[in-house]
Amino acid sequence: MTESSVETAATVTAKVAPPVGVSLATVAGLQVSELVLWATLVYTVLMIGHKVYQIYKEVSQTLDKQ
User: Fold this and answer.
1) 59 and 51 in contact (C-beta within 8 Å)?
2) Is the pTM of this model over 0.70?
3) Rounded-to-integer distance, Cα 45 and Cα 39, Å
4) What pLDDT digit, counting tens, does each position of 38-52 carry?
């Protein structure tokens, strides 16, 4: 017995998006290594900001309880 799987448009889009994005960036003149560098920088800054916000909330809740 075999199962046939039907992929939705969202699944196909999610699978195709990374290679298409890289191809378009290369055609536009951007290097993949440059894109990865910038994406990593943005992700790191967002994660640091999120962690600082969590620490701030925790500290302010602790000070309010005192």
Assistant:
1) no
2) no
3) 10
4) 989 999 999 999 999
